[in-house]
Structure formats: structure tokens, C-alpha cells
Design a protein that fits this description.
Number of domains: 2
CATH topology of the largest domain: Nucleotidyltransferase, domain 5
Strand content: 15-25%
Helix content: 40-55%
Low-confidence stretches: none
CATH class of the largest domain: Alpha Beta
Number of strands: 13
Distance between the termini: 41 Å
Strand order of the largest sheet: 7-6-3-4-5-8
CATH superfamily of the largest domain: ATPase, nucleotide binding domain
Largest sheet: 6 strands, mixed
Radius of gyration: 22 Å
Structural class: alpha/beta
Shape: globular
């Protein structure tokens, strides 16, 4: 079989079909990423981070967009190189159109448009949030992949989103529950900042929590109807409790940071899982996935494994490399859309705010 084709058998006939090779580009926040997928199998996934934001305690949009401008060309070049694919072999360019930081998105969208147009190939626009959900369908060469069956539930948790998504098909997703204020990741980052632990707070809290007692402290949990979430009350409870404890001991945080982190993490995980458990029971769906940056959290991953044992769930937990923003998930979503010829026109603008 020659390169660039795969074989289909139709009766006694042998038909050679051209490979579907998708270049994915992700630039919604502070990571510039490019990935290549051939026939649904990941060939490369390159991510360039931006350490410049650490000293500011959060992502600075202007700095992020400038870094994307510097990174996008070398990142795409490296992704093609690692994949062993020339740009002339590409079938289409998939890119994150939104939501995200507008300045960051514009860099990726503009590059994708120019690159696709120069090659005369179609463009596929991808919703960043749907990309996170579809990360569960990424296949790697030589590895067995366990993929959820439709319909399934996906808990999408990140710095900006906390949602329960009912996934009926790759292009049929419905948000049945979401935060009415702060996202789970945002609450973690803000509590980390109050403790003076640094940015981003998620990995720091996760590391400290592994050494602490999750039942050391009790923080407020919201009572919200349905499947919706709220984390602002938890954040306020944490802040006020910490203020009172610091009055008694000025070094309270340093003496108890592991227990504080473990108790905070346990409270957030409990809030997330309570609503997800309710949705699973009400909808009678036991295929349950988790996605987004917070899905890298050890406590949340353990909770999913525990629920698999206790409630008979079939759980799907992404590799760490697919939890944060990455182009592999964008390329995967693009691969699905390419097969249905869901292309976008050159005049499609980026969008900063939209859910699904």
C-alpha cells in the first residue's frame, strides 16, 4: 500500500481512498498548540506555553496575543515535522474559533485562514468547549483507546467553565447544568491566590492536597436546584474562615496549607460529583466522562474511579496531555466535521463568548 492512501474492500474490488489529514490549531488563551491527525489517529501534538503570566497572577491578554504571534509559525512547523507530513498533504485546517480571549483567538484564526487559503484546502471551525469533550476520541498509534458510547455525560471543568454536558453525538451536545457564577477552576485559583501560593493555583493545590487531610476543615456548600453549580459561596466561606484563623495565628497558612488545600479540593470535588451523580441517576446514563483543565486534578480523578466502583459507571478520564488546552482535541473535532463536510467560510469571525 502506498503512502497517503488506505484500502477499502468492496466485494472483490479494492478501492484506494486518500488519507484524511487534519492540522489543528489552538490559541484560545495562553497556550499555542498545533497537532496533526491522520484518519483519526494522532501523529503529533505540540504545545508552547507562556511562563510570562506567572508573575502577574493570571493571564494578561495583551501579552498572550503577542506570544501567540511569536509561537504560531514554529509550533505549526514542528507539528508537521514530527508528524512526517508536508503541508501539501493536508486535507483541511481545523482551528479554535471561540470561546476564549479575543486577541489570542485572532492570531490562530488569522493564521488558519491564511494557511488554508494558500494551500487551497477547506477550513473547519471548532468550538473550544466541544473540543475538550471530543478529546476522549483521540487515538494514538499503537495504543488501544477506550472511547465513550453515545449518549454519555461529560463533566467539563476548567478555569472558566463548570458544566455537565449531555453528549448524544459528536455534533449534538446539550448543557444540562452549569455554574451560575464562578467556575470550579476559578475558585481554586482565587483561593490559591488568597493563600499566597502562586499561579496557576490548580497544580499547586493539587500537589499540597495529596499531603493533607481532606476532612480537616469544613467550608460552605451551595444549595442550587437542578444540575447547576455555584462556587462563589465556597470562595467567600474560605476567605472569611482564613481571615478568622489568621487573627489567631499569623502563620496559620504556612502551618496548615496542606490541610487547607485538601479540604478545599474535597469540597469542590464533592460539589461537582453530587450534581453529576444526580444527572446520571435521572437520565439513566452510566457512561460518564470528565474533561477540561481541572480534570487533571488527582482528587477529581479518584472520585471518578470511586464512582465507577460504587455506582457501576463506565468512566472516561483523559490523559494529562489532553486535559489542558491542546490542538489534538481541535484536530479530532475537525476530523469529525470534515467527514460531514462541515466547512466554514473565510469571513467567519472569532467569538470570545458562547457556550455550545
Amino acid at each position: 500500500m502506498h503512502r497517503g492512501s488506505y484500502l477499502l474492500s468492496a466485494g472483490k474490488e479494492k478501492v484506494y481512498m486518500k488519507d484524511i489529514i487534519i492540522l489543528g490549531i489552538e490559541s484560545s488563551c495562553d497556550d499555542t498548540s498545533a497537532a496533526v491527525i491522520r484518519n483519526g489517529v494522532l501523529l503529533s501534538n505540540v504545545v508552547a506555553g507562556q511562563a510570562v503570566h506567572e508573575s502577574y497572577g493570571g493571564v494578561v491578554p495583551e501579552l498572550a496575543s503577542r506570544a501567540h504571534q511569536q509561537n504560531v509559525v514554529p509550533v505549526v512547523h514542528e507539528a508537521l515535522k514530527r508528524a512526517g507530513v508536508s503541508k501539501e498533504e493536508l486535507s483541511a485546517v481545523a482551528f479554535t474559533r471561540g470561546p476564549g480571549l479575543m486577541g489570542s483567538l485572532l492570531v490562530g484564526v488569522s493564521f488558519a485562514k491564511g494557511f488554508a487559503r494558500s494551500l487551497g484546502i477547506p477550513m473547519v471551525d471548532v468550538n473550544h468547549l466541544q473540543g475538550h469533550v471530543l478529546a476522549h476520541f483521540i487515538k494514538e498509534e499503537g495504543e488501544e483507546s477506550k472511547q465513550p458510547k453515545f449518549p454519555f455525560l461529560c463533566l467539563l471543568v476548567s478555569g472558566g467553565n463548570s458544566q455537565i454536558v449531555l453528549v448524544k453525538a459528536y455534533n449534538q451536545m446539550e448543557i444540562i447544568g452549569q455554574t451560575i457564577d464562578d467556575a470550579a477552576g476559578e475558585a481554586i485559583d482565587k483561593c490559591s491566590k488568597v493563600m499566597g501560593l502562586g499561579y496557576p493555583g490548580g497544580p499547586i493545590i493539587d500537589r499540597l492536597a495529596r499531603q493533607g487531610n481532606p476532612q480537616a476543615y469544613i467550608f460552605a456548600k451551595p444549595h442550587i436546584a437542578g444540575y447547576d453549580y455555584s462556587f462563589s459561596g465556597l470562595k467567600t466561606s474560605f476567605l472569611y474562615s482564613l481571615r478568622d484563623w489568621l487573627k489567631e495565628d499569623a502563620d496559620f497558612i504556612e502551618h496548615h496549607k496542606e490541610d487547607l488545600a485538601a479540604s478545599l479540593e474535597a469540597t469542590i470535588v464533592d460539589i461537582l460529583m453530587n450534581k453529576l451523580r444526580k444527572a446520571s441517576k435521572d437520565l439513566k446514563i452510566k457512561d460518564v466522562a470528565v474533561a477540561g483543565g481541572v480534570s487533571a486534578n488527582n482528587g477529581l480523578r479518584n472520585a471518578f474511579r470511586d464512582h465507577a466502583k460504587r455506582y457501576g459507571w463506565n468512566v472516561y478520564i483523559p490523559k494529562f496531555g489532553y486535559t489542558t488546552d491542546n490542538a489534538a482535541m481541535i484536530a479530532m473535532a475537525g476530523y469529525f466535521k470534515y467527514q460531514d463536510k462541515e466547512f466554514c467560510s473565510i469571513d467567519m469571525p472569532a467569538y470570545s463568548r458562547v457556550s455550545f
